[in-house]
C-alpha cells in the first residue's frame, strides 16, 4: 500500500517555500505540489474579488491533475481573506498561515512588537482581531510593504545574503520598528530576509514566523489516527529523500536559472498553468 501523502502549497511567489522547508523537515513520504501564481505576485496588492478568483482557479487546475490530501495556503493575505471561502467550496482540509502575533506577544519582554507584512495584511480585520485578542497590552509598530516581497524574491533567486538588499531594507523600514524587541514576520516571504534583518536590529531581538507551527498543524491533520512517530523524516541523503517526485506549477514562465534553483530545493516536475 502506498503511504505517500500529497500536500499542495499555494502562494503567489516563492514565500511558501519557507513553509515547504519546514514541512519537508518534519514529514516523510510526502509528495509536494507547489502552486506559484507568479503572474499575480504579490497577492497583497490584489483586491479581494481578484484574489478569490485566482486562488480558486489555481486549485481547480490542480484538481484536474491530482487530489491532494491537504492544502496549505502559504500566504498570509490569502489566508486571512479567502480561507473560509475555500472551506465552503472544496471538501479538502485547508491550513492557513497568519501572523504569529500570539507567540510574539508571549515572548516579548518590552511588549513592543514590530509587525512586518504586506499592505493587505497589515491593517486587515483578521490581524486587528489577533492583536485585540492576544496582544492588547503590546505596542504594535506595523509596516506593510510589497517592496519587501520583491526584495525577498531577489534574495531567494540569488541564493546569497546580498548587502545591496540589506541597504534597500534599511531605506524602507521605519526607525520605530528597531525599538521593538520582537519582530513578527507576517509574510511567508520574510523568513528569507531573516539573515539580513538580524544584522539590522539590536542583538537579542527575536524574529517570529509561523513556519514551525504550520508544520506541526499539518502533521497532526495528515496523520490523524496513526502513529505520528512513524512519519518522522529519515536520515537518508537529500537525493534519496526527494526521489524526483515533487511538482512545481507556475503561471508565468521561469528562467532556466530559476528552474535550476528550484531543482536544488527538490522540485523536478514543472508545469506552466
Written overview of the protein:
- The protein is α/β, with parallel strands linked by helices and 273 residues long.
- It has two domains: 5-97 and 211-272, Rossmann fold (3-Layer(aba) Sandwich); 101-208, Rossmann fold (3-Layer(aba) Sandwich), CATH 3.40.50.1860.
- 44% of the residues lie in helices and 19% in strands.
- It is built from twelve helices and ten strands.
- It has a six-stranded parallel sheet with strand order 4-3-1-2-9-10, with helices on both faces.
- Helix 1 crosses helix 10, helix 2 crosses helix 3 and helix 7 (146-158) runs antiparallel to helix 8.
- Residues 234-243 have low confidence and may be disordered.
**Shape label:** globular
Strand order of the largest sheet: 4-3-1-2-9-10
Q: Please indicate the percent range of residues in DSSP E strands (runs of 2 or more).
A: 15-25%
Instruction: Indicate the radius of gyration in whole angstroms.
Output: 18 Å
Poorly predicted ranges (pLDDT <50, ≥5 residues)? 234-243
Q: How many domains in all? A: 2
- Assembly type of the shown chains? single chain
How does CATH name the architecture of the largest domain?
Answer: 3-Layer(aba) Sandwich
Helix content: 40-55%
Give the overall pLDDT as a whole number: 90
CATH structural fold name of the largest domain: Rossmann fold
Q: How far apart lie the N and C ends? A: 31 Å
Largest sheet, in brief, is:
6 strands, parallel
Output the structural class: alpha/beta
**CATH C-level class of the largest domain:** Alpha Beta
What is the H/E order? EHEHEHEHEHHEHHEHEHHEHE
Give the helix tally. Answer: 12
Number of strands: 10
Amino acid at each position: 500500500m502506498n503511504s505517500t501523502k500529497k500536500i499542495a502549497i499555494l502562494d503567489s511567489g516563492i514565500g511558501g517555500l519557507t513553509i515547504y522547508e519546514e514541512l519537508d523537515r518534519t514529514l516523510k513520504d510526502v509528495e509536494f505540489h507547489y502552486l506559484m501564481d507568479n503572474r499575480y505576485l504579490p497577492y497583497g496588492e490584489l483586491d479581494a474579488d481578484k484574489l478569490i478568483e485566482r486562488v480558486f482557479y489555481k486549485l481547480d487546475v490542480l484538481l484536474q491533475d491530482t487530489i491532494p490530501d491537504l492544502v496549505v495556503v502559504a500566504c498570509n493575505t490569502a489566508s486571512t481573506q479567502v480561507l473560509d471561502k475555500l472551506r465552503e467550496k472544496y471538501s479538502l482540509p485547508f491550513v492557513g498561515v497568519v501572523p504569529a502575533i500570539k507567540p510574539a506577544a508571549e515572548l516579548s519582554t518590552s511588549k513592543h512588537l514590530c509587525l512586518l507584512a504586506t499592505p493587505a495584511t497589515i491593517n486587515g480585520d483578521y490581524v486587528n482581531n489577533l492583536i485585540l485578542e492576544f496582544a492588547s497590552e503590546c505596542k504594535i509598530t506595523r509596516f506593510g510593504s510589497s517592496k519587501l516581497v520583491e526584495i525577498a524574491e531577489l534574495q531567494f533567486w540569488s541564493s546569497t545574503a546580498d548587502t545591496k538588499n540589506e541597504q534597500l531594507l534599511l531605506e524602507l523600514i521605519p526607525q520605530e520598528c528597531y525599538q521593538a524587541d520582537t519582530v513578527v514576520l507576517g509574510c511567508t516571504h520574510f523568513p528569507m530576509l531573516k539573515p539580513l534583518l538580524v544584522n539590522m536590529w539590536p542583538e537579542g531581538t527575536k524574529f517570529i514566523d509561523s513556519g514551525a507551527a504550520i508544520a506541526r498543524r499539518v502533521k497532526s491533520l495528515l496523520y490523524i489516527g496513526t502513529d505520528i512517530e512513524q512519519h518522522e523524516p529519515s536520515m537518508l541523503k537529500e537525493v534519496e529523500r526527494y526521489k524526483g517526485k515533487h511538482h512545481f506549477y507556475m503561471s508565468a514562465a521561469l528562467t532556466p536559472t530559476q528552474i535550476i534553483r528550484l531543482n536544488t530545493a527538490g522540485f523536478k516536475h514543472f508545469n506552466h498553468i
